Backbone:
């Protein structure tokens, strides 16, 4: 009995190792096909055409500094971090400031809701797994440069385009409910936070200037009053 269990565990380990090796081989093959297709050069050319100012703006927009900490987001330690503002003009200003100040937190909240909704949607998970398996099959079967389907040879580029189109429509179908649930709940929570959160204490965070160095005055006459006795 023990020898049978040992053989069974060895077979399982061998099967797992073979599966991992197959996946790594497919990933390496996909990487080689990507490099051979000239996609890196195409991406580089597109990136080179983007103005440097646009790159800097996008980089600043999604920089780590724009993500507010949990303490700032919830106003921990503040006297009144949340309350209902009844003055319309002040409420509009609060909403404007909160949406521009916490926008990256709201985007992160949307991503979290998307992942949570996806995990509780077995249909979407199964569909995405089938899509992943389909991509692995296409990559493997077209490794020679063409895909032989029912006696018809399809060029690898054409097969990739067809698979991309199928994937897009499949994801739209599979993730439509996930998308709307995510958009609704994340938008609701973001609006409630922006409506109630008083972050006026943080309005000037971007205007802070670091003071460094020693104080230097122009001449001894300017500092003579420091030595005068009262």
Residues:
């Amino acid at each position: 009995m023990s020898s049978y269990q040992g053989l069974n565990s060895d077979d399982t380990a061998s099967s797992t190792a073979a599966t991992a090796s197959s996946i790594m081989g497919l990933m390496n093959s996909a990487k080689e096909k990507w490099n051979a297709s000239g996609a890196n050069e195409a991406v580089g050319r597109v990136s080179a055409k983007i103005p440097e100012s646009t790159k800097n703006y996008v980089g600043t927009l999604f920089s780590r500094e724009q993500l507010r900490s949990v303490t700032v987001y919830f106003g921990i330690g503040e006297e009144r971090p949340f309350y209902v503002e009844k003055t319309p003009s002040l409420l509009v200003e609060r909403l404007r400031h909160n949406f521009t100040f916490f926008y990256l937190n709201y985007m992160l909240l949307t991503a979290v809701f998307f992942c949570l909704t996806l995990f509780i949607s077995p249909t979407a998970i199964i569909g995405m797994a089938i899509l992943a398996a389909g991509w692995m099959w296409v990559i493997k079967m077209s490794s020679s440069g063409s895909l032989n389907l029912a006696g018809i040879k399809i060029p690898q580029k054409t097969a990739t385009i067809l698979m991309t189109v199928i994937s897009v429509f499949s994801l739209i179908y599979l993730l439509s409910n996930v998308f709307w649930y995510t958009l609704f709940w994340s938008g609701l929570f973001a609006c409630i936070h922006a409506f109630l959160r008083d972050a006026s204490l943080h309005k000037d965070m971007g205007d802070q200037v670091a003071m460094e160095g020693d104080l230097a005055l122009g001449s001894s006459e300017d500092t003579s009053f420091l030595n005068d006795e009262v």
